[in-house]
Amino acid sequence: xxxxxxxxxxxxxxxxxxxxxxxxxxxxxxxxxxxxxxxxxxxxxxxxxxxxxxxxxxxxxxxxxxxxxxxxxxxxxxxxxxxxxxxxxxxxxxxxxxxxxxxxxxxxxxxxxxxxxxxxxxxxxxxxxxxxxxxxxxxxxxxxxxxxxxxxxxxxxxxxxxxxxxxxxxxxxxxxxxxxxxxxxxxxxxxxxxxxxxxxxxxxxxxxxxxxxxxxxxxxxxxxxxxxxxxxxxxxxxxxxxxxxxxxxxxxxxxxxxxxxxxxxxxxxxxxxxxxxxxxxxxxxxxxxxxxxxxxxxxxxxxxxxxxxxxxxxxxxxxxxxxxxxxxxxxxxxxxxxxxxxxxxxxxxxxxxxxxxxxxxxxxxxxxxxxxxxxxxxxxxxxxxxxxxxxxxxxxxxxxxxxxxxxxxxxxxxxxxxxxxxxxxxxxxxxxxxxxxxxxxxxxx
Length: 445
Fold this sequence. Notes:
Blueprint: E1 2-5, E2 14-19, E3 34-37, E4 40-42, E5 46-48, E6 51-58, E7 63-71, E8 74-82, E9 85-86, E10 94-95, E11 105-111, E12 117-124, H1 128-131, H2 144-147, E13 167-169, E14 172-173, E15 199-205, E16 211-220, E17 228-232, E18 240-247, E19 256-263, E20 268-276, E21 279-283, E22 288-290, E23 300-305, E24 308-312, E25 322-330, E26 333-336, E27 340-341, E28 351-357, E29 362-367, E30 370-375, E31 390-394, E32 404-416, E33 419-429, E34 435-443
Parallel strand pairs: 16-20
Antiparallel strand pairs: 1-2, 2-6, 3-7, 4-6, 5-6, 7-8, 9-31, 10-34, 11-12, 12-15, 13-14, 15-16, 17-18, 18-19, 19-22, 20-21, 23-24, 24-25, 25-26, 25-27, 28-29, 29-30, 30-31, 32-33, 33-34
């Protein structure tokens, strides 16, 4: 099934088309196809040479709309993302389906430039956002958000999940990471701060355009302190890729930028840890730290593109801002200049998660939790080099379960000639006051 967006007033009607073909690829005509939609109404079905189409009219302004087409034993499903603002250059946003998006916590998606691979940089089987205190409740390692298993913790969706052995029951998770010396007396829980079990997962694109075959990327540390903000350095060659990410690893003062090779489609353990005399020792370290001369700030959500390292200072400065540093050479043996702020807004604006598209010389980023981009025509540290940020997608701050409230983590791919896709995360309110982060995408018209 394909989804396209009618460019009328929001909420924009959705044109859903189910294409029915026989085993020889020939159109199957004359069927009775029924479209069903949650939080929307489905119009009459028309058929053109085996393509069955209905107009879906949303009854929400910032939420998911699940659409199903059924005929006999055949069924197709899509989840459309209805948003109050979708830029005129973009078609219908939709969820990137399971096994990418699950009932767990998916954050930091990054698509490869050729659109053939996707990495979810931070996955947890608990509500990671609310567990870490971002939902208006005090941080408590024994809160429902930290102790309840809400997402898959093993195969097939999350094979080899790091920290899964900490699960005692569906509502009890040990708050210990003994491999990095995080445990209380006698192996008891750490009670001062949640040790969120996290790992990254990669997926490959299949012929239908779906992402499948999840594979683990992380450090063997009981699910503690995983790398985050993975981004591809150029397009992969076969199953070989290079990536940069942020990580508080050996030699780091705080989160620094690291480079690593990746074997796509296979498990990638980037380091193994053991606790020796109260000190966490890293062994079998694969990545290389990339030093940057900059103020002492967290270097988060990095990307290497267009001869620059782009990153944010998320978790250090409030609100976070964007930074850039030129580099020369080939990773990991690069020379990096001193980092500079990127002058794209006022100091009170929340700027994070930069992604520079070298094809169009546009920097995509999260601007006050909207997805925007600005065109570059000179030195990125000079305000006059940038156009004004253009808003592409925005959500609304709703209070009901299911409401999509914020967007972030943009990245761009071109899976085929003339096709540009924008990937992102969206946060929706979950029943019980929590949040669920999933992955979305939208094609350019």
